[in-house]
Amino acid sequence: MTERPAQRTPNRQLAALIAEAGFSNAGLARRVDQLGLEHGLDLRYDKTSVTRWLRGQQPRGTTPALIAEVFTRRLGRRLTAQDLGLDACAPVYAGLEFAASPDEAVDIVGGLWRKDSGSHAELRKIAFTPAGLVVPSRDWLIGRADEKVARVEVPVRIPAQGRPATPRIPVPLDPARRRAPAERGPGQKVTGGDLAALRSVGELFRSLDDRYGGGHARQALVRYLEHELEPMLRGTYGEQTGRRLFAAAADLTRLAGWTSYDIAAHGLAQRYFVQALRLSQAAGDRAYGSYVLVTMSRQAVYLGHGREAVQLARVAQQGVGTSAPPVVQTLLHAAEARAHGLLGEVRACTASLVRAERALETARPGDEVPHWARFFDEAQLADEFGHCHRDLQQFRAAAQHAERSLQLRAPVYARSRLFCRIVLATARLGLGELDQACQLAAEAAGQAAEMRSVRATEYVRDFERRLEPYRDAAPVRGYRDKVAALG
Asked: Domain residue spans in the chain?
C-alpha cells in the first residue's frame, strides 16, 4: 500500500493502545489484513508497516478506520481513527456499529443518510460483510429498550429583574444548508401530524418499490430521511411520541436498506438494516426488530450465506419468543426455511415450513397485525414454499406452490409476482416442460425490463444459466429472440 510522507512526530497514541491490547506489530498487521478481507479488500501489511505507523506515517484509504475497528473489537470500546492518532477517512465499517444510546444511533444513521444522499458513490460500492452480522444481532438479542428517548427543551433562566424564559438553544447550521422559513429545523417539537406523515411516506415508497423496483425512488427516500426525518429525531418530544418516532425511523431506514438491496448496493443495505435494528430497540419494538433480522436473513440467503441466514432467523425467533402475532411467527419460520433450503437441508427446511404453515393457520380475521407484516398472507407463504422446493430441486411441489401464489397474489406486488413466475419457470424446466418454462420466463423478462431492480434482472439471468444445456432447442432460441427484442 502507498503511504503518505512520514511525519516527524512518533504516534504515541497508537503505541499506547498497542501495549494496552497486547498486540505485537506483526499481530496488529495480521488482524488489519483479516478485517480487510471481511470488507473485500486485499491488504498486505506486515510488522514493518506498523513500525512506520508508529514513527508517524499515515496509512491511506480506509486503513485508519480498519485499524480503529481492530482495537474496538479487542478492547471492547468504540475507538476512532483520531483516537489512534491517525487521519480519519471514509470508514468501511461505518454504520455496522450498534449504538450505545439513542443519540449515538441518530448520529450514526444521520451520517449514513447524508453521505448516501450526496455524491458519495463509493458508499454504494462497499461490500457486504458476513462478520458484520454477529455483533448487532447479539446486542439486539441481549439488549433492552432504552430507558429514555424523550428530548425536551432546556429552559434558560434569566437572573435578577428578568422573567424566567424558555427559549430554544440555537443549533448552528451549515450556511450551505440554511433552510427556508417553512422547513423543519433541529429543536422543533414533533407532532402527531409529523408521525402520520412518516407513515404515509413509508406506504408511498413501499408501493413504488413493489411496483417498479428499488431504483426508482430510492434517492428521493434517502433525501427525505436526511432533510425531514433527521431534524425530527433531533427535535423535542416526550416518551410516547419519541417511541413512535423511533419506530417510524426504524421502518423507513429498513426500507432504505431494502431499496439499496434491490439495486445490489449490498454493503450499504447491510448498514441500513443494522441501524434499523438499533432504532427498533429505541422504539421498544421487539417484533419489528425481529422483522429487520428477517430482512437481513433474506439478504444473506440472496448472497449465498446460508448459515448466517439461519442464525439471523433463529435470533429473531428467540428475541420475540411466542409473544408475536401468528403472522409474524409465520414470517420468522419462513425465513429460516429459506435459509435451510439454500443449504440443501431438506428435513430442517420442511420442519420450518410446517411451523410457518401452522402459525398462519392460527391467525384469525380479527387479529391485530402490525402494518409491516400485513403483506404476509397465503400468497406469500405459497411463494416461500415455492422458493424452498425449487432450491431443494423438488420441482413438482415448487410448481404447485408457485402457481398458487400467482393465483392469490395481488397485481400491486409486481416484483414479487415476477420472482414467483421465474420460480415457476425454473420448476417447469426441471420437469422437462421447456416450452412452458421459456414462455413464463419471457413474460418475466419483459416485466424486469420495466423495473429498476437488479434482483429482478438477476432472477432472469439465473434462469438463463439453467437454460444453457438446452441452448440449441427451438423454445430456447425463441426465448432469446424475445429477450433481445426487449433491448
From this structure: 12-84, 96-154+190-284, 409-487
